[in-house]
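CO-FOLDING WORKSHEET

Operator: S.A.
Ligand of interest: zinc ion
Run index: 358
Mode: holo prediction, single chain
Checklist:
[x] sequence pasted
[x] SMILES validated
[ ] output reviewed
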Amino acid sequence: MEITLLFFSVLIGLAFGSFFGCCIYRLPREISLLKPAFSFCPTCQKSIAWYYNIPVFGWLWLRGRCHECGERISPRYFLVEAITAAFFTAAFFRFGFPLMIPIWVFGSLLILTTFIDIEFFLIPDILSKPGIAAGIAASLLFPELQGTSSRLLAGGLSIGGVLVGGGLLYLVSELGKLAFGRYKVILASPTPFSFQANLPDDARIVIDDEPFLWEEHFFRKKDRIRIRAEEVTINGEDFQGIDLTFYHDRLETVRGTISLTDLRSVVGRTAYAEFPREAMGLGDVKLIAAIGAFTGWVGVLFTIPVASLIGAIYGVGTILIGRRDWSSKIPFGPYLAIGAIIWIFWGKEFLNWYRSFG
Ligand SMILES: [Zn+2]
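OUTPUT RECEIVED:
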């Protein structure tokens, strides 16, 4: 029985890992998970034969290169398959059947969001939002997940985790906004700027050939870009010395409001502009809410400081060895995932150790 379950855990981990490799490539690129149904080489687009697609071994056998075109295939596939199989197996040993099932779901969420965040600096809502629901459902179905036998208490602890985790990081992101405030561009002399749009998904302000993308500056409804224009032509009409306030969907001036879809051209000269700056993305807020749904509020209070500590050590370490400079950003999601995994496997031991002082 045990051996069968162990064997089953490894196989199912490999199978899911292979599927996750595909999700990590396709989800952020908005390629359907179902079509094409076969795996394909990202370079030559040729489908990959099933025998080369066997998790872990296929990649090793081909030494990380496409059989058709010889281009490198990202080691990410191999890593995701190996990590998923290792996680599923470790969860089987630690928790056994049936508690390993919700832990597998939780681990899958963490693995998917980690690899997407590393590559794209984003955590898709399509993972984090259902993750919150899955964590609450898992706590009701498997109250042992929250260390209790009462479904009601488990549900309460889970919702508490969503609120404490999401609330804390939301507060941090708001405080960060206050602390870092706005990013100001001050130029020595009036410099050409223009607004360029390729709606619905791309809009930007270009000041002196430097683009400021909408997706990097707008996170909330009230976020705005302010430009003090010495002179500007808006849809063919000339103005002198007015303030332009761009919101994600419109431009406001003293002369009124114009929807971005009606904005044909904005060209002018400016010496001063302000951009909103984000200390932390809302993706992280939704991810920690999902983590809280699985770990409860105590788990969240463990995960956030541990993630921050590991992130800070990595951040300072890579600067010290010269692999990164101060301004380059690092995603926070992977550290939250590492903190959560430490909590899943060693949280109880930590609590016992912590209580031994009191
Ligand atoms: Zn190829």
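REVIEW:
Residues 282-320 form the longest helix (39 residues).
The chain has a mean pLDDT of 88.
[x] output reviewed
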